[in-house]
Specification:
Radius of gyration: 14 Å
Distance between the termini: 38 Å
Mean pLDDT: 97
Low-confidence stretches: none
Number of helices: 2
CATH architecture: Beta Barrel
CATH class: Mainly Beta
Oligomer: single chain
Order of helices and strands: EEEHEEEEHE
Shape: globular
Structural class: mainly beta
CATH topology: Barwin-like endoglucanases
Amino acid sequence: MFIQVVKSKIHRVTVTGANLDYIGSITIDRDLMDAAGIMEGERVFIVNNNNGERFDTYVIPGERGKGEICLNGAAAHKVNIGDIVIIMAYAIMQPEEAQGFKPKVVFPETSTNKLI
């Protein structure tokens, strides 16, 4: 049997953009991706603290150090610029492996989305 557990989490970042005319995804500052161990193209789940929306998409890397968090395509309808979101990635593993597993959790400065 396998279970899903949180592998990575970027906790409380501010949405800096919403681009309806893009094909889809979320753009995340590469520094935040690296700190959380999230890869390009990886499936992520997003929780919007402002309106309660929960949805998933895939990641495209943004420019390092810019603090960009931009929802693209249809996902842009689920956020407003300035909303606070939590971004999570999950891994599938055996329960024995999950018992000792520690997820990477990043707590950036919410006003700038920069690493503290």
